[in-house]
Amino acid sequence: MSRGRPEDLQNTKNQIKNPNPVAGDLTWLRHNIRDQSGEIDLLLLKGGTLEDMAIELIKMGLDKEKLGVEGMKRRVLRHIKMNCAPIETSDRNYGHNLSSVLRESPLKIWKFSFEEVESNPDNFNKFEEVSINKDIFGYIPTKEDIFLICKIVSPKGQEIRGEVLKRSIEKYFMDQCRRLHEDWWEYTKKNLEDWSKQK
Questions:
Q1: Which of 100, 104, 82 lies closest to 182, judged by CA?
Q2: What single DSSP character describes residue 180?
Q3: Are 41 and 131 in contact (CB under 8 A)?
C-alpha cells in the first residue's frame, strides 16, 4: 500500500462526488490498478461485500498466493482497516485516515461514502452507517465498551495497567474501523475515575 497523505481524505470525497479514480496505472490513493490494493480501491468506490470483492479479485487473477475466498476476504478487510487507520499511527504510516468516508451498510456492503451522499438515497441506495461512529469529531468509548475490552484483555478480571488498556482500546476500535476522538484518552481517564466512584 502507498503511504498516507493528508490530502487523501479530500481526494476521496472528490471521487465520491465525481468518480475518476485512475490516472495512468494508479488510483487516487496511489495504488497500482494491477495489484490487489488498487483493485480494492476501485471495488470500494462501487461498493460490495467482503465476499463479493474477494471473488472479484480471484476472477482478476490477483489471488497469487492461492488464499481462496476466505483468505482474500481477510486481505480486503486488512486493506479497509489500513484505509481507516490514522496516518500517523498505522503500520509503517500506511494509514489513509478515511474512517469518516468508508462505511459498511446493514447488508454488510462496504463503500466509500460521506454525509452529503448519504442524505441522497438515490446515490447511496439507502445504506446506513453502522461500523463507523457518526460523531464527526470521533468516538468516546462508553462504560460498556471499556467493560467489554477489559473482559477481552483480562478474562479473569486481573488489574490492567493504564498503558495496556489504552493500547487495547486503540486496537479494538481500529479493528472495527472506528475513529476515536483526538482527546479520547483524556476523556476516558476522567470517565474511568468517575465510574470507579459509582457503587
A1: 100
A2: B
A3: no
Phi then psi for 80, rounded to 5 degrees?
Answer: -60, -45
Instruction: Indicate yes or no: pTM above 0.85.
Output: no
- Residue from 23, 4, 147, 169 nearest 87 by CA: 4
Whole-angstrom distance, CA of residue 97 vs CA of residue 82: 8
The DSSP letter of residue 90 is: S
95-154, pLDDT tens digit by residue? 788 888 888 887 788 999 864 434 344 443 433 333 333 444 567 888 888 999 999 998
> How much of the chain is in helix, strand and coil states, percent to nearest 5?
50, 5, 45
CA dihedral (137, 120, 48, 91) in degrees, to 10, reads -20
CA distances from 134 to 3, 25, 83, 165 (A): 26, 34, 17, 24
* Chain position carrying cell 488498487: 38
What's the DSSP call for residue 85?
A: S
- Here the cell at position 123 is 446515490
Residue where the block lists cell 484505509: 83
HEC sequence for 107-118? CCCEEECCHHHH
Specify the pLDDT at position 23: 92
Q: Could you count the other beta carbons within 10 Å of the beta carbon of residue 50?
A: 20
Residue with cell 483493485: 39
